[in-house]
Specification:
The chain has about 450 residues and is mostly helical. About 75% of the residues lie in helices and about 0% in strands. The protein has a single domain, classed as MFS general substrate transporter like domains (Growth Hormone, Chain: A), CATH 1.20.1250.20.
Length: about 450
């Protein structure tokens, strides 16, 4: 396939790796940074979801940018560099405001600006990349690209965590955060520079492909894509009920060190490296909906596992399980969008999906923060039979219940959009969970990496 040897493919892979450095050294520790600054559970929930909500609304700006800009890659390159620069004032917060309400509020405000840049970038990036990457190699390419991203994220998470851990040992963790955030700023600036190497085909958006958010919503009964959006957004609502508070649970309630916290986070990233390419190949062959089904049901039970033990080794096992199946779910959800939407409508559909998703995630996180603050201890005590008592235990239970409800009620509503091979769910699961495929995926990376790199022109 000619595309896999193109300069655009190489640039997209490198841009993804550089963005992964930003994610690993900075985004991963943003919640921990808020906790270090003295944030309350409600503030940490707001930090995790309020910026994302505003960022999702900003995607409408990105949609208009797609319609009007002459060079999508030029706009993206500039926005990526501006986005990276926002990590520098975040790094300065503890030196300007020390810790407390003003520091956390400033962090949330800067995080909002940061997510606005993400919101503007997302529809433009998806519009351009969706035009560049051919459908027949989409799963394979993004599986390979995401595998490289997983490696880069893992290394960056370890580096960022070590910086924070070392500086914490010197009683100055703020220096660790500052250096990690500065590395993120540099990596994102480089990503913006690299992105100028991709192709930039012209895009014409006809008037009939333009529609409002309310017109999008009004098609909920009839549109397969809208039903998919409601499914994924509802799943993220269930996740957001507890997701933003796992960092606080580990650092405050379980008393993990920054090094232990880094190991827990890195475990999920490391397993993604092993399986990501396999998920990509399976999505090309058997479709994204089948993978969403298998992974959706299995991640539904993930938060309940946190009630079984709070031993450090068991937390690592939970993260391995989580990373294994969330990587498949997220890859399939992203690829489904490219399959289901025509290029002219893609930017709008992605923007409107982000608005719905952002609103539900914000509501879920806010509800989780309120429950954590006001649920009586009598409800948490029965749940702490095997783990340390915490106000977040109720959230873990409710999150699992809601995930199961989403899978049972909303997953059946949408269908696969392209012709794929049929396979039973347990057979697909066997392909990615038995020892032989796992070993085979690792062996393929080690022994056939040269072949893949040749196809990608690296």
């Amino acid at each position: 396939m000619k595309f896999l040897k193109s300069g655009s493919a190489r640039a997209l892979v490198l841009e993804g790796n550089l963005d992964a450095i930003k994610c690993g050294t900075a985004e991963t520790y943003l919640g921990a940074f808020g906790i270090f600054l003295g944030g309350t559970p409600l503030q940490i929930g707001a930090l995790a979801t309020l910026p994302a909500l505003v960022g999702s609304l900003a995607q409408t700006i990105g949609t208009r940018l797609v319609d009007q800009c002459k060079s999508r890659k030029g706009s993206l390159s500039l926005l990526m560099k501006l986005q990276g620069a926002l990590w520098l004032p975040m790094a300065c917060i503890p030196f300007l405001f020390d810790r407390g309400w003003y520091a956390v509020s400033t962090l949330i405000a800067l995080a909002v600006l940061y997510q606005i840049t993400i919101g503007i970038i997302a529809p433009v990036w998806n519009s351009l990349v969706g035009d560049i990457v051919p459908q027949e190699v989409r799963g394979e390419f993004f599986g390979y690209r995401n595998k490289g991203i997983s490696i880069a994220v893992f290394i960056a998470v370890v580096v960022g965590g070590q910086l924070i851990h070392l500086c914490s040992g010197w009683q100055r963790p703020e220096y660790g955060f500052a250096i990690a955030f500065a590395l993120a700023a540099a990596a994102r600036w480089c990503a913006g520079q690299v992105f100028t190497r991709v192709d930039d085909p012209p895009l014409h958006v006809p008037e009939e492909s333009k529609f409002t958010f309310w017109q999008f919503i009004s098609r909920a009964r009839h549109s397969n894509f809208v039903k998919f959006v409601i499914f994924v957004s509802s799943m993220n609502f269930a996740v957001a009920l507890s997701g933003p508070y796992f960092a606080m649970y580990m650092l405050n309630d379980l008393g993990l060190t920054y090094l232990e916290y880094t190991c827990v986070v890195a475990a999920a990233v490391l397993v993604q490296f092993v399986v990501m390419r396999s998920w990509g190949a399976l999505s090309d062959q058997f479709g994204n909906r089948k993978i969403l089904r298998i992974c959706g049901w299995l991640v539904a039970f993930n938060p309940w596992m946190w009630l079984l033990s709070d031993h450090f080794a068991f937390l690592i096992l939970i993260q391995v399980y989580s990373g294994f199946f969330w990587s498949g779910f997220n890859l399939a959800a992203a690829n489904f969008v490219f399959d289901a939407v025509t290029p002219a409508k893609r930017a709008r559909c992605i923007a409107y999906q982000a608005i719905i998703n952002g609103a539900l995630v914000f509501i879920g996180s806010l509800l989780g923060g309120l429950l954590a603050m006001y649920v009586p201890d009598t409800l948490n005590q029965p749940l702490s039979l095997f783990v340390t008592s915490s106000p977040f235990l109720v959230l873990f239970v409710l999150s699992g219940v809601l995930r199961i409800m989403v899978m049972a009620l909303l997953y059946p509503a949408f269908r696969e959009v392209r012709s794929v091979q049929r396979i039973k769910g347990h057979e697909l699961l066997v392909r990615v969970t038995t020892l032989r495929p796992l070993w085979g995926a690792t062996y393929a990376y080690l022994s056939q990496r040269r072949s893949l790199r040749d196809r990608l022109g690296r």
